[in-house]
């Protein structure tokens, strides 16, 4: 079984044919999908999809690029919505200094609020980081000193040193279809050596379709293609890699087991 640890089933490019997309994923052996939100306005729809589909779960959070639009989302709001039985994670949150669509200080404050909610609920954190390695790591470390939490660096494209630091904090790392791109040599080197017990795979659908699906909207079925590339890269049998990463999915997102 494959598990897609990060997809946006309610985004344009997927939502219009959601049932067909889910059918194609299941036909390729995808048995678990985590449907991610980036704005409060998406929470109801993301949760509703998870309520309707037994192999889909939900994450609620505010993307760093949206932090300026939701300055009043506090820990209590996140905790209350995360109490829903189909919500198994908080995020995506983090820092994005590439687009600069939200003030950096507000991004950092939102990031810390999400971590506090994870600590209070015991749910894992979904971390987005782009062009912000130093600040992301500083906040992750500082917050870990204030109390343990768990989580995953989603769509990992950072340095090998950042990967090592995240692993040292007990976090998981999720690899997207970017690893299949021919110019992703540094990422491929890191992905080849990640410990199997901390590895997840994702599509970030409808984005980042892997080879051989470049140019198409991404969808959860493509997690099988990324897994096949990773298995070859790491010299591991595909069925073993699929089983281990799926087991990691249910270990990290523990509410999904029940």
Q: Overview of this structure, please?
A:
Keywords: Hydrolase, Metal-binding. Its EC number is 3.1.-.-. It comes from Sphingomonas kyungheensis. This is TatD family hydrolase. One of its GO terms (molecular function) is hydrolase activity. The chain has 9 helices and 8 strands. By secondary structure, it is α/β, with parallel strands linked by helices. The protein has a single domain (2-257), classed as TIM Barrel. An 8-stranded parallel β-sheet has the order 1-2-3-4-5-6-7-8. α7 (185-193) links the parallel β7 (172-175) and β8 (199-201). α3 (75-82) crosses α4 (104-121) and α4 packs parallel to α5 (133-146).
Could you name the key traits of this structure?
258 residues, alpha/beta, TIM Barrel, eight-stranded parallel beta sheet, 9 helices, 8 strands, 41% helix, 17% strand, globular, metal-binding
Topology:
Layout: E1 2-7, H1 18-27, E2 30-36, H2 43-52, E3 56-60, H3 75-82, E4 87-96, H4 104-121, E5 125-130, H5 133-146, E6 151-153, H6 160-168, E7 172-175, H7 185-193, E8 199-201, H8 223-234, H9 238-252
Helix pairs in contact: 3-4, 4-5
């Amino acid at each position: 079984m494959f598990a897609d640890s990060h997809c946006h089933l309610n985004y344009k490019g997927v939502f219009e044919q959601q049932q067909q997309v889910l059918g194609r994923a299941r036909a390729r052996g995808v048995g678990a999908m985590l449907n991610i939100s980036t704005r409060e306005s998406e929470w109801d729809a993301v949760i509703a999809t998870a309520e309707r589909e037994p192999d889909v779960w939900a994450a609620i959070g505010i993307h760093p690029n949206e932090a300026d639009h939701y300055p009043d989302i506090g820990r209590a709001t996140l905790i209350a919505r995360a109490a829903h039985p189909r919500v198994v994670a908080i995020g995506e949150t983090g820092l994005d200094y590439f687009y600069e669509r939200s003030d950096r200080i507000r991004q950092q404050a939102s990031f810390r609020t999400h971590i506090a909610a994870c600590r209070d609920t015991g749910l894992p954190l979904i971390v987005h980081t782009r062009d912000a390695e130093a600040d992301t790591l500083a906040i992750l470390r500082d917050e870990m000193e204030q109390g343990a939490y768990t989580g995953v660096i989603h769509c990992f494209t950072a340095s090998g040193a950042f990967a090592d630091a995240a692993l040292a904090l007990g976090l998981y790392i999720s690899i997207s279809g970017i690893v299949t791109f021919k110019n992703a040599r540094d990422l491929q080197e890191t992905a080849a050596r990640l410990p199997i017990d901390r590895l997840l795979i994702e599509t970030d659908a409808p984005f980042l379709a892997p080879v051989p699906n470049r140019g198409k909207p991404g969808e959860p079925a493509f997690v099988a293609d990324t897994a096949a590339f990773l298995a070859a890269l790491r010299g591991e049998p595909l069925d073993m890699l699929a089983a281990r990463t799926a087991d990691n999915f249910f270990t990290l997102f523990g509410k999904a087991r029940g």
